[in-house]
Amino acid sequence: MDTRRPLEVLLVEDNPGDARLTAEILKDGSSGSTLRVVADGVEALDYLQRRGRYRDVRRPDIILLDLNLPRKSGRELLAEIKADPALKTIPVVVLTTSQAESDIAQSYTLHANAYLVKPIELDGFARVMHAFRLFWLETAVLPRLPGDGSV
Q1: What range defines the domain where residue 84 resides?
Q2: Which of 3, 46, 67, 113 has a CA 20 to 30 Å removed from the CA of 82?
Q3: Residue 34 phi/psi, 5° resolution?
Q4: What is this structure's pTM?
Q5: Tens-place pLDDT, residues 86-128
């Protein structure tokens, strides 16, 4: 018997088209996950630290993070997440168009849990997101904190 609750996914993405497409692909799955979207690194940090309008949000179970964001880059945000004892156990999956070896190496150095290249063509993007959903939302067991609403 599966007693896992639906997962809370935080997507940090400044491209509304990519955010909309990600939401469409993830809602087609059987995981029942909830996708929350923020558009930049500053807003993501407010969400994660439950500041301002995000005071009552649930802690995300996983973060999908674009690297190239306004105000605070994905690299900066990743470093802050993994340096914060209250946030560092949240898996962070980088989802970006960059295939640069330096971006890949830096992301893993900053303790990203995975690095996915976002294909430009629709079929490729759908394939990557389906693989993300199958592994991270339907197969992997993610950490829970006491009092986070887990079963």
Answers
A1: 8-137
A2: 3
A3: -110, 130
A4: 0.90
A5: 999 999 999 999 999 999 999 999 999 999 999 989 899 999 9
Gap between the terminal Cα atoms of the chain: 12
- For residues 25 and 27, give the distance between their C-alpha atoms in angstroms, rounded to a whole number: 6
How many independent structural domains does the chain possess? 1
Find tokens 């991270």 and name the residue.
Answer: 136
User: The domain that contains 117 carries what CATH number?
Assistant: 3.40.50.2300
Contacts 24+ apart (CB under 8 A), 101-108: 103/67, 103/75, 106/75, 107/67, 107/75, 107/78
**How far are the Cα atoms of 24, 36, 52, 77 from residue 111, in angstroms, in the given order?**
28, 22, 27, 12
Please report whether residue 65 resides in a domain. yes
59: left (phi over 0), alpha (psi -120 to 50) or beta: beta
In this predicted structure, the answer to whether residue 2 has a pLDDT above a threshold of 50 is no
CA distances from 71 to 44, 45, 76, 96, 149 (A): 11, 11, 10, 17, 31
Closest by Cα among 93, 91, 77, 78 to 132: 93
Tell me, yes or no, whether 119 lies in a domain: yes
Q: Is residue 3 part of a domain?
A: no
> Which residue, among 69, 65, 57, has the nearest Cα to 81 in the 3D structure?
65
